[in-house]
Each structure stands twice: as structure tokens, then as C-alpha cells.
């Protein structure tokens, strides 16, 4: 009996130690089962709500895409060569210029590329002569693209049928004679460079008109060996007199050039303007009114860098004969056949080093009142 009691005492002392691991094992199994249950439930509810909430997610992405066009890495070759579907984007100038300065190093295009002319309108707001331009562009889709830089506060109301519909780029205030004007021109060039098919770039204003039909303009520009930017050395106070010696050594007095603001350049020169970080700081700091930077910056820089690519003349006719700081403005009373004959006969020039009388493809400045007679004469005089 004594031995039996002893064994019972021993048993009582051993049992608690055996119960504890058993309870831990039970607790672990219950925890594991609960965990698996929660995981399965979570997966089910996530899948369920993902399916149920597709419409709101789609609406959110769609709304964002209206203001933020897609610039992520393309997933196919076509994605690299396709122009942006929308011109409005959220890139700042530094990002835009960097993006636009990316150029292919192999000159042979591995796809069928139809070179286009980029018509870049630098405006304050409306395009009062838009109906005339609509007629000019009609029937030539695929050979041109349009870009508009206006005051940031201006909202265009072109109908969907218009060639100008949604062709505004992100813009900033541009002041006459100041670097912000050249910034606007560089912004236009950079946005146009995002379309790999744009080969030639024409700067125009809201008061410009075409003097010939589209076919003549395209043929003239596409067959030229040179770009059309006026650049000349003027020794007087309005030329060399505006030079600041602090611009040396990047720009010396003998390099200083002047010319019209309105130009037509090819893709090579457009990239040079957009990527420039050598001359820009000098002009920004030392060419301020009465040094009007839009008359000197591109003209001087390209004369230094690529003089062999310039025709040293503009394709845009402007009448300075009336005197003053601004050229003559033509209204309704000025428009006639004789008026256009006078422009056509006003100058002889060189085209691919050969003499020609076809020197101007565009003209300015035309008031809104000139639109009606221009439309009446367009088919007979302008050819469209």
C-alpha cells in the first residue's frame, strides 16, 4: 500500500508536465485553423470587391488620363514612334526639354516615315484668321501637325471638326522682347519634337497668313537644303549696339547677329535650340530691353553652331516701311490683288543657291478685319 501511494504521488507530479505541451499543441492548431480561415475569407472578399468596384476604378483612371497623358515606357516599337495622343501634360520645361532632346543616332528609320511640317502658332489668345488656315490645311492630313502656345488663361473653343481642336500646349506668359518669349518658342519646338515624324518647324503668329497653297509650301520647304532664319551682322545701335561684352567668351562681338523672330528650321536645328545650355544663360542675363532677345538669341547661336545650314533669310513677309517699333498691320482696306502682287514682286532671293522670285511663303501682320476679303481672294490669289 505504501508503494502504491508512492506511485500515485509520482503520477500526479508527472501529469501536469504532460498536459502543458498538449495544450500548446491544441492552441497552435486552433490558431493555425483561424489563420487559414481568415486568409481564405480575405481572398474571397478581395476578389469579390475588386470585381464589384471595377466601374469606379475605371472612371478614376479615365478622369486622370484627361489631364495627364501617358509618357511611360512604350511596350512596343509602335509606342516609341507614335506621337502623343494629347498635347496637355504635366512636365515642366526642364523635363520637357530633356525629353525632346532625345534623338536617334541611326539616321535610317526602320519604318515608313512621312515627314511632316509642324506649324507652331505663338499667340496671345484667339486665332482670328483660323478659317483661312482651315482652308489651307484641308485635304493634306498626315503632312502637317499644329501646336498653339497662348496665354495660360486663354481657353480655346475650337469645335471637334477644326484642325486647331485640342492643339494647345501647356503654356506660360510670354513678354515681348524678353527671354520668356524665347522660352515659349523653345516650348513649342520641344512639344513638336515629341512627334518623331515632324521634320520641319515653322513659327507663326495669330496675324500670319499663308501666301501659297499647302502643296507649294510643302514642296518648297522639303526640298530646301537650308533652314530659313534671318541672321545678319548689323553694325548700328540696333545691332552691335545691343551687344554686352559680358557675353564673352561664349559670344563675341564678331559673333553677334540680328534677325526676324519668325523662322522655319529643320529637326537638327530644333534639337540644338531645345538642348542649348551654353548660350541661354548669357542671353538671359545680358540681353534685356533695349536688347530684344528674340531678335538675337537663336540668330546668334545658330550662326555660331551651324552657319552652313542657314539660308540667312525669313520666309515671312513683313512691312517695316511705315516706321516705328512694330511692322505695318493690314486691314480690310489693304487686301487686293495688287497687294499680293506687290509682295510677290518685292524681292529676289536665293533658293538652294539659285536665284528665285518666290521668297515668301507667309506674311504678317493681318488684322481680324482682313479675314473676309482674304477668304474671297484665297482661291484666285493664294491658290486654295
UniProtKB/TrEMBL annotation:
Protein's UniProt keywords contain Cytoplasm: no
Name this protein carries in UniProt: Core-2/I-branching beta-1,6-N-acetylglucosaminyltransferase family protein
InterPro entries in UniProt: BC10-like, Glyco_trans_14
Topology with respect to the bilayer: Single-pass type II membrane protein
GO molecular function: glycosyltransferase activity
Localization terms from the record: Membrane
GO CC annotation: membrane
Bilayer-crossing regions: 24-44
Species of origin: Morus notabilis
Amino acid at each position: 500500500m505504501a508503494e502504491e501511494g508512492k506511485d500515485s504521488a509520482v503520477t500526479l507530479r508527472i501529469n501536469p508536465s504532460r498536459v502543458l505541451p498538449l495544450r500548446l499543441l491544441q492552441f497552435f492548431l486552433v490558431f493555425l485553423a483561424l489563420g487559414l480561415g481568415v486568409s481564405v475569407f480575405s481572398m474571397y472578399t478581395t476578389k469579390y470587391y475588386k470585381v464589384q468596384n471595377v466601374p469606379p476604378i475605371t472612371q478614376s483612371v479615365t478622369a486622370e488620363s484627361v489631364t495627364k497623358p501617358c509618357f511611360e515606357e512604350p511596350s512596343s516599337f509602335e509606342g516609341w514612334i507614335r506621337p502623343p495622343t494629347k498635347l496637355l501634360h504635366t512636365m515642366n520645361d526642364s523635363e520637357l526639354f530633356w525629353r525632346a532632346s532625345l534623338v536617334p543616332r541611326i539616321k535610317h528609320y526602320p519604318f515608313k516615315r512621312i515627314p511632316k511640317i509642324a506649324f507652331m502658332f505663338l499667340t496671345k489668345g484667339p486665332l482670328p484668321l483660323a478659317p483661312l488656315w482651315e482652308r489651307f490645311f484641308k485635304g493634306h492630313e498626315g503632312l502637317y501637325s499644329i501646336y498653339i502656345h497662348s496665354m495660360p488663361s486663354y481657353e480655346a473653343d475650337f469645335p471637334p471638326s477644326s484642325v486647331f481642336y485640342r492643339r494647345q500646349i501647356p503654356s506660360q506668359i510670354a513678354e515681348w522682347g524678353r527671354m520668356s518669349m524665347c522660352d515659349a518658342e523653345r516650348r513649342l519646338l520641344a512639344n513638336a519634337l515629341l512627334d518623331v515624324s515632324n521634320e520641319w518647324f515653322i513659327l507663326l503668329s495669330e496675324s500670319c497668313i499663308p501666301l501659297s497653297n499647302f502643296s507649294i509650301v510643302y514642296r518648297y520647304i522639303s526640298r530646301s537644303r537650308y533652314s530659313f532664319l534671318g541672321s545678319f551682322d548689323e553694325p548700328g545701335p540696333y545691332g552691335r549696339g545691343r551687344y554686352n561684352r559680358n557675353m564673352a567668351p561664349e559670344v563675341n562681338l564678331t559673333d553677334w547677329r540680328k534677325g526676324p523672330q519668325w523662322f522655319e528650321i529643320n529637326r537638327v536645328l530644333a534639337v540644338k535650340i531645345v538642348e542649348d545650355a551654353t548660350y541661354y544663360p548669357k542671353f538671359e542675363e545680358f540681353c534685356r530691353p533695349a536688347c530684344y532677345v528674340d531678335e538675337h538669341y537663336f540668330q546668334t547661336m545658330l550662326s555660331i553652331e551651324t552657319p552652313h545650314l542657314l539660308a540667312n533669310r525669313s520666309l515671312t513677309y513683313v512691312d517695316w516701311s511705315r516706321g516705328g517699333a512694330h511692322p505695318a498691320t493690314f486691314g480690310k482696306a489693304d487686301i487686293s490683288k495688287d497687294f499680293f502682287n506687290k509682295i510677290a514682286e518685292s524681292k529676289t532671293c536665293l533658293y538652294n543657291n539659285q536665284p528665285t522670285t518666290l521668297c515668301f511663303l507667309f506674311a504678317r501682320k493681318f488684322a481680324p478685319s482682313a479675314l473676309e476679303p482674304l477668304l474671297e481672294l484665297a482661291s484666285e490669289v493664294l491658290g486654295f
